[in-house]
Specification:
Layout lengths: L20 H4 L6 E6 L14 H9 L5 E2 L4 E2 L5 E3 L10 H16 L6 E6 L4 H12 L4 E5 L19 H6 L4 E6 L4 H10 L3 E3 L7 H8 L3 E7 L21 H14 L1 E8 L8 H21 L1
Parallel strand pairs: 1-4, 1-5, 5-10, 6-7, 6-9, 7-8, 9-10
Antiparallel strand pairs: 2-3
Helix pairs in contact: 2-9, 3-4, 8-9
């Protein structure tokens, strides 16, 4: 916020979409965004800790009006929380910190859509747990190039390689976009009967089947590496052969129209590993998720 003692000249807000106070105040906002700048559990290329700041900075260049939906996203009201301080000593402690931060906003009884901007994909665990506490029948739609179903990876059960596994132990999970995984993860999918849409899909109705199998209340987690590297190279573990922008956004819109989305996260942007356009794309995805969810409500 500008210093009240500053000269009466225009100032650029540093929140998501660079919104003025009347569109970014917590009391009136329909959506809350929590930046979680962590990457202590990444296993290939680091830099996701800089993702939240890059997304917020790039969002200032987005047009508030959404052509696809015909609405002004800024009018929905979006509050941007301060960045969450990392806990670098223990990944589980960071999971609990994210859980507490998300609970702070979901527990206010206001029905605000709460989203996390990562950071590596371990941020999803705490956010999903917080939403489970509020929505006992929650299911999680996990959109990623990787299954993230390892019981333990690189010495921790709470890192980015185990996010879907920890969530699957507590609520139903559906996977979309998977195109690389370990044999133990494939075995777990088959043993647990986890609905999975590998990419590219093996049949034209695969995404429809995933949506049909979701419960009434859904949490959406998007790892940006689900997108093809030609469109999103700024991630820690890029994987060729991914979804394209319109495939991803079309699927997300369909889910938001058919189910009640109660929370979301967008993770794994490592801005220094790509072009400024990649940060812009990530910001646009956050913008789209807010718009799709709140327009459907």
């Amino acid at each position: 916020m500008p210093d009240p003692q500053s000269p009466p000249v225009p100032w650029t807000p540093t929140n998501f979409l660079a919104l003025p106070p009347q569109q970014s105040a917590l009391a009136s906002a329909s959506a809350v965004l929590i930046p979680v700048p962590i990457d202590s559990t990444t296993s290939f290329r680091t830099g996701a800790r800089h993702g939240p700041a890059a997304i917020i900075a790039a969002s200032a260049a987005l047009e508030d009006y959404d052509v696809e939906l015909g609405i002004d996203v800024a009018d929905l009201g979006i509050y941007t929380a301060p960045p969450l301080e990392p806990h670098v000593g223990d990944p589980y402690q960071m999971v609990e910190r994210v859980r507490s931060a998300v609970t702070h906003y979901t527990g206010q009884g206001s029905g605000k859509l709460t989203g996390v901007i990562g950071g590596d994909h371990s941020a999803t665990i705490g956010s999903a747990f917080a939403h489970m506490d509020l929505h006992p029948d929650l299911c999680v739609l996990y959109i990623d190039a990787h299954a993230d179903l390892r019981d333990e990876y690189q010495g921790t059960a709470w890192g980015h390689g185990s996010g879907a596994r920890r969530i699957a132990e507590r609520c139903p999970v559906s996977l979309v976009g998977i195109r690389t995984l370990a044999s133990e993860e494939r075995e777990f999918i088959e043993a647990a009967g986890i609905p999975t849409c590998y990419w590219p899909p093996t049949n034209a109705g695969a995404l429809h089947n995933i949506t049909s199998g979701l419960g009434s209340e859904v949490y959406i987690s998007v790892d940006l590496d689900v997108l093809d590297p030609s469109e999103m190279a700024a991630v820690g573990t890029p994987e060729p052969g991914g979804m394209r922008w319109l495939e991803l956004t079309g699927f997300l819109r369909s889910v938001c129209q058919q189910r009640r989305v109660v929370g979301f996260d967008v993770c794994e942007l490592a801005p220094d590993l790509g072009l400024p356009a990649h940060s812009y794309t990530a910001a646009k995805l956050v913008y789209k998720l807010i718009a799709y969810t709140l327009a459907a409500r």
